[in-house]
Design brief:
alpha+beta, NADH Oxidase, 5-stranded antiparallel β-sheet, 7 helices, binds flavin mononucleotide
């Protein structure tokens, strides 16, 4: 296997906001991509604390209606138009992937390995982010566009009630995905020399 293929996928992964419902692969393929990430992403002590929910079609649109409803309750009506447009943009996509952390697993680890108690919530976040990256990059390699959102905790109760999410699952991120209606914008890169140091070469 060439690592260049992996690097090419990493470069292909971008935040794509103009998404539509015309996926270049079947929704079953999207689900398999998510399943692969769930199986093969590492976690501290192999604890596998990340939980994932895939919402497709009308279920996905329901999610962004919940977000719109929650935002309407806190954003002044006269300023709501940009928010409404953003929610419409998300609804126009094909689906969403919800990433959760199972707090029962985290607490179990804290009890079992007290010396690391403070680290487990942090490592859980790391592992969760790795799942997000694995899904995002694999979707990109499949030609599926995606962007990452954080409307938690605003939408937590509505999500839990609608899809029967256990109380111990904490919502951490929402990934919107779909066909690419317009490519990602320009991206700037800070100097690598300020971000990477090598010793002993
Ligand atoms: C941890 C993390 C949180 C992010 N949160 C959001 C978000 O809430 N909303 C959003 O539109 N983009 C979010 N992004 C996307 C970043 O803005 C984006 O990755 C960054 O500008 C680089 O662009 P690229 O994804 O096209 O490479 C997030 C990215 C990361 C890694």
């Amino acid at each position: 296997m060439s690592y260049l293929a992996l690097q090419q996928a990493a470069e292909t992964r971008r935040s794509v906001y103009a998404l539509n419902k015309n996926l270049p692969v079947g929704t079953d393929e999207v689900v398999r991509i998510v399943e692969h990430a769930v199986l093969h992403t590492p976690s501290s002590f192999n604890s596998q604390s990340t939980r994932v929910v895939v919402l497709l079609g009308a279920e996905h649109e329901k999610l962004w209606q919940f977000a719109e409803d929650a935002l309407r309750a806190i954003v002044p009506a006269e300023n709501f138009e940009p928010t409404a447009q953003k929610m419409a943009m998300f609804k126009a996509a094909a689906g969403s992937v919800l990433f959760f952390e199972d707090q029962n697993v985290i607490q179990g680890l804290q009890q079992q390995f007290a010396a690391y108690a403070d680290n487990f919530p942090v490592w859980g976040e790391h592992a969760n982010a790795m799942h997000q990256y694995a899904v995002w990059t694999a979707l990109a390699a499949a030609g599926v566009g995606a962007n990452l959102q954080h409307y938690n905790p605003l939408i937590d109760n509505a999500v839990a009630a609608e899809w029967g999410i256990p109380a111990n699952w904490t919502l951490r991120a929402q990934m919107v995905f779909g066909g690419i209606a317009a490519p990602a914008g320009e991206k700037t890169f800070g100097p690598v020399t300020e971000r990477l140091k090598v010793f002993g070469a």
